[in-house]
Amino acid sequence: MKTLTVELGERSYPILIGSGLLGEPELVSPHIRGNQILIVSNETVAPLYLEQALSAFRNYDVQTVILPDGEQYKTLQTLDLIFDALLSHHFDRHCTLVALGGGVVGDMTGFAAATYQRGVDFIQLPTTLLAQVDSSVGGKTGVNHPLGKNMIGAFHQPNCVVIDTATLETLEDRQFSAGLAEIIKYGLIRDQKFTRWLEDNMNNLLARDTAAIVQAIETSCRSKAEIVAADEKEGGVRALLNLGHTFGHAIETGAGYGNWLHGEAVGTGMLMAADLSRRQGWLGESDVQRVENLIDKALLPTRAPAHMNYTHFMEIMAVDKKVRAGKINLVLLRAIGDAFITNEFDLDKLRETIEAHRALDEG
Amino acid sequence: MKTLTVELGERSYPILIGSGLLGEPELVSPHIRGNQILIVSNETVAPLYLEQALSAFRNYDVQTVILPDGEQYKTLQTLDLIFDALLSHHFDRHCTLVALGGGVVGDMTGFAAATYQRGVDFIQLPTTLLAQVDSSVGGKTGVNHPLGKNMIGAFHQPNCVVIDTATLETLEDRQFSAGLAEIIKYGLIRDQKFTRWLEDNMNNLLARDTAAIVQAIETSCRSKAEIVAADEKEGGVRALLNLGHTFGHAIETGAGYGNWLHGEAVGTGMLMAADLSRRQGWLGESDVQRVENLIDKALLPTRAPAHMNYTHFMEIMAVDKKVRAGKINLVLLRAIGDAFITNEFDLDKLRETIEAHRALDEG
């Protein structure tokens, strides 16, 4: 088992990585203060892993809530199911919420923990690759609004994150690739060596080689932990983690919630960011090609939906959180492993990037 | 104009108290970072004070949302009206929300500010006596749930609080008395001298004498500011501010949201706390009589609804936030001006207190 720490003073917490960790009481019990536990999962994950997770909390008063599965349920309305369970079982402010599932379950459970009785404890048990390398670490929690993704939320750090890589065995290929997008991101923004490693090991990862997976998760979580420790509330460097996300959120929204996976949209979004960087003269043509090859090798899409033109993108991007005083902030690349934030790019070049990355019209 | 400060390090903020402050741009502008302002008010307050408030923000890009008036609308569903406005006007994370109204508007606007894009700025312009002396100061924000009051929320401090006592001129008598309940509370929990002053000045307050009102608000806000500075997240001394609130929340819930005002329920709740303190042998009979006289003099109810018996109270109190491991924590009195928290009281005496404070059956 590998152990990393997210260093946040009094609120520091461990990330535990390994195979078969899910049912181990001694991993979670040091991080629980009260006796009441609510495990939140969804209808896909619960049949596979709830029983195992329950055995880790067998010494506590445990209740469960099973949410419908899918990004389209990441809403205030679904959140109310968690509050209903907490209140109908008389949970007090010393309870602990446990998120067993992917990013949607983790974000909603975290937000419920952030706001139930103005804040209670929570533990992340991420079961998708994307949640394991990204969303379960760092304390971003929240729900979507019909007018924008993740627009309602809070920063609320978990008490611990237990990453059981054995849960990836049942993860479908498309979800696995979506997780690879966020792994690729860490290489592109700050770690050229890791990018090279990914180019060399992508086939091992796709073959679900355990050693390769553990190494990729550990490197990603270490990167995320360092960035979060340096900038918890995203005042500076943490914003680099949004590489590909402004384009990606636009694709997710434009395609309709649930049609594209978050990681798929981020994959295409990172390629668009690289392409715009090239058009601005900041990144070489061969580097853009490396980005495209890596995304393609990870079995991720490299083209946005055919119907999304420049106007469509701009309408959606205008409500993104990265907008400041009407200017769109984008994470772009000066080199592979060297990202920066800017709103000083040419809108004509942005238009070219968008047009160049629309899928061919299905009709 | 009186100025107090809530001392919270980097997040310190001023409370400005005086008559005619609402339309003054120079009071609010030092506390605004961006250009986008959303004023949230309700259908009762907006016709009276929105125009004046707008003039204070005339140099900004201002939008408004008018909510329905009443505690029964303090819900996640109503909150969505604020998010709809923020998103449809493309508000970014540097916007400022302004709460113009009583406690319900303040709590909901504050919670929207706490969670919009994981946290934006907000300003409190409280227009009821209760909001001016209690809820606008200290950063408790949130909404109700059908199974409990204020069960969903966050700590989120405002950037400033502007208390215009002129807004009290239009406040109906019942609402005014509800505010007096929270003022009386500060005397009972920590300030015997202030209790004596209130006994001497209650008639002046009820006559809406400006000097008396300003003094009562200033003393109350100073008390609240000191307590919040010492214990922002209610780990200790801040819990004393809940005197009368566990009984009070039960009365509000049991009577049906909106039938009792919060302050009215707290008034009766404080008397019940005093009475239980006496039955435990901690408070003298004459002190209980002083509490009852003061609450009665403030034109507040001294009896809970006739239909609420012991079982009814206990069912509701069991989901209160002050419950820990099944034990009810109550704020009780050792003397006037000396409150403490305990869960070590006799349930039979609690039953006696509840039975002694039920109104005579209406039928």
- Unreliable stretches of chain A (pLDDT < 50, length at least 5) are none
Strand share of the residues of chain A? 15-25%
Q: Kindly report how far apart the N and C termini of chain A lie.
A: 51 Å
Return the CATH architecture of the largest domain in chain A.
Up-down Bundle
The secondary-structure element order of chain A is: EEHEHEHEHEHEEEHHHHHHHEEEEH
Helix content range of chain A: 40-55%
| Oligomerization category of the chains in this entry | homodimer
CATH homologous superfamily of the largest domain in chain A - what is it?
Dehydroquinate synthase-like - alpha domain
- Total domain units of chain A: 2
* Morphology call of chain A: globular
Could you name the CATH topology of the largest domain in chain A?
Dehydroquinate synthase-like, alpha domain
Strand order of the largest sheet of chain A: 1-2-9-6-5-3-4
Mean pLDDT of chain A: 95
Please tally the helical runs of chain A, counting DSSP H or I stretches of 4 or more residues: 13
CATH class of the largest domain in chain A: Mainly Alpha
Number of strands of chain A: 13
Describe the main β-sheet of chain A briefly.
Answer: 7 strands, mixed
Cα gyration radius of chain A (Å): 20 Å
Give the structural class of chain A.
alpha/beta
